Structures are given as structure tokens and as C-alpha cells.
Amino acid sequence: xxxxxxxxxxxxxVHAAEIHYYKWLQRQPPSAPRREPPxxxxxxxxxxxxxxxxxxxxxxxxxxxLGSVQAGEEIETRFGxxxxxxxxxxxxxDIYLPAGDGxxxxxxxxxxxxxxxxxxxxxxxxxxxxxxxxxxxxxxSYRLAPRHKFPAQIEDCKAAVxxxxxxxxxxxxxxxxxxxxxxxxxxxxxxxxxxxxSDDGLEGVEDPSQYPDTRLQAVACGGMPCDFRVMELDSPxxxxxLGGTRRQVGELYRxxxxxxxxxxxxxxxxxxxxxxxxxxxxxxxxxxxxxxEAVGVQAEMYVVPKIGHNFAAFDRTALxxxxxxxxxxxxxxxxx
Length: 336
Prior knowledge:
Blueprint: H1 3-27, H2 42-52, H3 54-62, H4 64-67, E1 75-86, E2 89-98, E3 104-110, H5 124-132, E4 136-140, H6 152-166, H7 168-171, E5 173-183, H8 185-195, E6 218-222, H9 239-242, H10 250-255, E7 269-274, H11 283-294, E8 299-304, H12 309-312, H13 316-329
Parallel strand pairs: 3-4, 3-5, 5-6, 6-7, 7-8
Antiparallel strand pairs: 1-2, 2-4
Helix pairs in contact: 1-2, 1-3, 6-8
């Protein structure tokens, strides 16, 4: 197996673990006492899935060309840049820059993993696509549940946007043109990032006016859960992340719901979703589109035909539509 194929297999193992975890959550009855998921040790879980999901590896290997750098193209990469320091340690980002002096639009790239697993390397191939389209991609790590409960994840995303704007010169980013991309849990986070502002209590700093703005100018994402206000009142399924049931911490369920914050000043958004997704219902992005359109915000949706949550994450057409939407909305140089 080549070096690229090995890296691809590692990324897939993490994503497969995410799917396993989502399915485990779905099997838990609403009234069941909270139990730890099987194979809680991330390394052991990853090793098991390396062999269990070989057919999906084949699909990913066939898509390597979508995210690889073509001959003659120059993309600068900077790995492990610290964007914020937390008590638990530094939060890091991988930067993918196009050739040229810029400034270029910036795109925050947020991985999935049920808010409790995953790495910033998962969407590295898509970050390269963005760089080839004259956008600076910033793929981040963020604090994970259950050790770090909400709103830690969105606070890290907002810290990353502030860092992108405060370091715009070094990153060759146009601070007025910043968007975001994510899948699954990452899609939820970038949508919440796109719909919330300094008045919503999720900035993670005492006085947001003293820092760069965290509002976005575009969002593209896939497999997005958007509204936790509809969860069963006593279901413990999200307690590992939100800290309790909806009856116990209902305000946190509202704060975690992007649809609750849809307002007319939100940025244009593009969603894609697998037609056969049985993990995140397709009604989720459709409801989000309806809420955005009701307040006059541009919202587009592409349904990936005949496939589910896992395969939709790597659908060539969906990813091309996402990058094209971001390039056009953020006015990247050379975008149609």
C-alpha cells in the first residue's frame, strides 16, 4: 500500500468509528441509563475498524485524485499552527495556502466525529481542493466530548475564526471574506458558527467587542444535524456532549441548535445530504433551509442520490458543488 493510501486508510478508520458511534447512539432506547459506548479506547476502536470497513477504503482510494495536488501546482502547507491555548493544551490547525500573495478568502474546515472523536487531517484532501480554488483552508482540531462538553467545540471554532482574522496578513487571508466547511458534527458546528453572533453567548470570551468578529460570509457543509430542541425530553443520547437530558439542560439544547438562531443577517449556506442517510435525517437540512429562506437568507441543498451518511462525505459532485459555492460566494479570484 502506498504512503498516500495508508494515510487515506487512517482517515477512513476515524470516520468509520464515527459511524459506529452514531449507530450505537441510535440503538439506545430513550429511557436507557447512560452507558459508555463499546470500544471506548480510540486507538482500539480505530484498529478494529481498519479491517471492518475495507470496502469503503476502496472507495476512498478511488477518490484520492480529487484531493491530490496536480503536477505544476503549488500549495503551501503549514501543519500544527497553534490558534488558541486552552487549559487542556494548545488547539492546532493545518493551513493550506494557494500560490500567490493574496489576499485570498479564508475557509475554516471542521472535521466530524460525533463531537467526541476525529482529527483535523480528516478533511485534508478537501482543504487542498479549496487551496487550488484560491482559498486559504484552515483545518482545525477542537476540544472533544465527553471530557469537554458543549459549548467548548463552538468556542474553539469561534477562536479559530478570530485567529484567522487577527493573523490575516501572515495567512494571506482577506479578513472580510471568511467562510467555513464541515461534515456531520463539523457541519453542525460551522452552521452554528454561521448563525450565531456576539449576542448569543457562545463566543467564549468575556468581551467579544475587544476581538475580531466571528461572523462568516459563507457556509458549506454536509450531513448536518440542526435542531436538538426536538429530542425526547428524557433521552440521554446526547448527555455525553450536552451534559444531561433536554429536561435537565434544555437551554443548552437550544443553544446547540443552529436552526434556533436563523436570522436575516446570516450568510448564504449550501448543504448536501445523502438521500439514504439513516443517521442524520434528511429533514434536518431541509428544515434548516426552510428557516433560512423564511428570513430571506440564501440557502441551497444538494441531495446525493441513493447513498447514506458515510458515502455522502466523499461524493465527488457534492464536494465540487461545495467548493464552487464557497469560491463564488466568497469571490475567490478566478471563480465563475
